[in-house]
Amino acid sequence: MNSLIRPIEVMHLLRHGASPLPNVIVLGMPHLSLAGLSETWLLKECGHRHWFQLAAAAGLARPDFRDEVGEPIYAAFLGVSVRDATLDTVREHDELVIASQLVRTSRTQFTSIHRLSIRARPLAEVVMTSTFVKRAQKGRNHSIARVEVPSLAPLEPEPRATSFATEAAALRSNRWCIHLGFERSKAAVVDRLVIDPCPGLDFNGADFLYFASFQAFVDRAEWAFFRPAAPFPTTRRRDIVYRGNIDPGERVVVSLLQVRREEREFGHWYRLERAQDNFAIADIFTLRRLRAS
Question: Do 23 and 17 form a contact (C-beta atoms < 8 A)?
């Protein structure tokens, strides 16, 4: 096994919620947005940590996974949840602490939990479930096939991780009735926005539409449809389930299926589809907190 980390050290790290990456980040302009901590940056950072934790679980110094013929294998997210978030409370130069834990939730799936805090005050929890995939056809993002990586060490169960993996599976397969107050039977297209993803901005180094770009597309649609006044809404909860990907050059249709308004909260359910064949690639459920002026 190509490794600079002994397996016993890996298990010690993961059992104690540690990460192979530094767990303290001093916040600056790359991490912040007009509404506080950038949610897009946060998803990218937690996804990066999830990837390195998978490597640590396999005893690898870096996440370079390959199949038996040397072709690259990637971790594809099935579901991501941002919970109990107060991202608008952070400021420049705050020290963000991220405590991460990875667990195996099935034969092929892994879930990480990232708990964020500033000065010992909880800021949010990010839960991410992934599986390993490779392209069945080289250069084609429509031809993604799941693969098993048997060298990964078995990890201890964690109830919250298992619960989210089960919930995400039900959402992906449409085995649900109500989620975060949204009713599947009442889905109807309220409005649509067509987005032409930019290869230099929205795709990652593996040539996939980056998982954090899905959330960014919904934020663009929210701005286009509702144009909320300042101070801008901030995410309290967001659940994303992923079903597919696109090739560079393809467009994405962002459809608003339901919207809810309350005195201090604004919620919406969006579906993302490939424009060329109407294949659903994601559903995104969001609860946003409306802040007082």
Answer: no
